[in-house]
């Protein structure tokens, strides 16, 4: 069976220096679908939960495809190619030259970018004008694993991993109210992934990630994401809600991204 959806909740911030114990419950194992519940714990406390649903792939050698309803959002038009977009290091240097970050922050960001198992190239924000409503803006970026992945079973977990990278930050990038260091706190609360083309998903080639934010209020923001392979089509759709608070002058306030990925 192949996974087709994950519904995750980030309960507490994880500590990379502390071992994680995963408790897996077999909720159901049917002929076509299976469900597993996972609790990740550190020092006896649950820091993360997810419910994973698996399905038996439809066989192309039987009559099953005849029972399948099919449609999909098409790959966007007029997207700059990865080679025409700035690398992570080039983007950081651009921010430094524009005065958006200082030298110390730029060096910190470069180290993080160099150590990331994935390479990201931003393809811009569609409709990024002051008069455009934030809900009508789209953020696009290319992403690819550094190096080839030989283990076929690694591609879907790897996609789940990178799908959380800078995801909730979409809300602050499309809304001028939350730009220019105005966000004091930004934390992922939950994360949902729907896998659409598991058998053809490979993360060691360039994938396009398009995200938007349909809603933000009550110190929370909702973001959605679509992940495409230009040659295959839509691979996954993701949803995430996060806590987002603007700065209000409190002592010790800073825009810290709690590392929720395990």
Automatic annotation (TrEMBL):
Ribosomal protein is among the record's keywords: no
Pfam assignment, any one: 4HBT_3
InterPro entries: ACOT8-like_C, Acyl-CoA_hotdog, Acyl_CoA_thio, HotDog_dom_sf, TesB_ACOT8-like_N
UniProtKB keywords: Hydrolase
CDD domains, sorted: Thioesterase_II_repeat1, Thioesterase_II_repeat2
GO molecular function, a single term: fatty acyl-CoA hydrolase activity
Record has Phosphoprotein as a keyword: no
BP-aspect Gene Ontology terms: acyl-CoA metabolic process; fatty acid catabolic process
Domain Acyl-CoA thioesterase-like C-terminal stretches: 115-244
GO CC, any one term: peroxisomal matrix
Cited SUPFAM superfamilies: Thioesterase/thiol ester dehydrase-isomerase
Domain Acyl-CoA thioesterase-like N-terminal HotDog, first and last residues per copy: 3-55
PANTHER family reported in the protein's UniProt record: ACYL-COA THIOESTERASE (PTHR11066), ACYL-COENZYME A THIOESTERASE 8 (PTHR11066:SF34)
Family to which this protein belongs: Belongs to the C/M/P thioester hydrolase family.
Protein name, UniProt field: Thioesterase-like superfamily-domain-containing protein
Source species of the chain: Tuber borchii
